[in-house]
Amino acid sequence: MTLLEEILNYNLKFVEDKTYENYETSKVPTMKAVMLTCMDTRLVELSTKALGFKNGDVKLVKNAGATITHPYGSTMRSLLVGIYALGAEEIIIMGHKDCGMGGINVEQVLNTMKDRGIKEETISILKHSGIDLDHFLGGFSDVRENVRANIDLVYNHPLFDQNVPVHGLVIDPHTGEVELIQNGYEKVVKN
């Protein structure tokens, strides 16, 4: 049986048994927060449980490295929509120790792409078209600095409400311990 078949079979029983009723909630986050964190498998549940969040408490945005790669990309859009359209009043940016994006080897990623059929010509065309593949596929060397850089990007965005606190955290995926990087309440503009 394929993974897709397993998923679909499970879903039939999930719906039939009305298990979904255990997860019913509003589309507005109860704790009025939107959180950006990493897509690391260890954080699927740990990222929210370690902070005391339950289903429906927080809008959750995940990507590789919990990184905003472009000020007008989908991650920043999700944070802004969370604030302006979905009832969030605070942002949490949470990186984690032992992140796969910390010191990722871009050359190795490109070689794996080639091994899987991406032509050298395609990579060359992208590079000559001005696409910085090292930046696009690259990570960071210090998770704390990455969290700080993301916070700065949010605060410096022309569409961001300076009265919204942006908190920075780093979680240990082995213990769930959280380190405070930035207390967003200390940085908000006072009216």
Would you give an account of this structure?
This protein is an alpha/beta fold and 191 residues long. The protein folds into 2 domains: 3-98 and 142-184, 3-Layer(aba) Sandwich (Beta-carbonic Anhydrase, Chain A), CATH 3.40.1050.10; 105-138, no CATH class. A hairpin with a 6-residue loop joins strand 4 and strand 5. 36% of the residues lie in helices and 16% in strands. Strands 2-1-3-4-5 form a 5-stranded mixed beta sheet, with helices on both faces.
Number of helices: 7
**Morphology:** globular
Give the termini distance in whole angstroms.
59 Å
CATH architecture of the largest domain: 3-Layer(aba) Sandwich
By CATH, the topology of the largest domain is Beta-carbonic Anhydrase, Chain A
Domain count, please report it. 2
**Portion in beta strands:** 15-25%
What would CATH call the homologous superfamily of the largest domain?
A: Carbonic anhydrase
What's the story with the biggest beta sheet?
5 strands, mixed
InterPro entries: Carbonic_anhydrase (IPR001765), Carbonic_anhydrase_sf (IPR036874)
Keywords: Metal-binding, Zinc
EC number: 4.2.1.1
Binding site for Zn(2+): 38, 40, 96, 99
Topology:
Blueprint: H1 3-16, E1 33-38, H2 43-49, E2 58-63, H3 74-84, E3 90-96, H4 106-115, H5 120-128, H6 133-137, H7 143-155, E4 166-171, E5 178-182
Parallel strand pairs: 1-2, 1-3, 3-4
Antiparallel strand pairs: 4-5
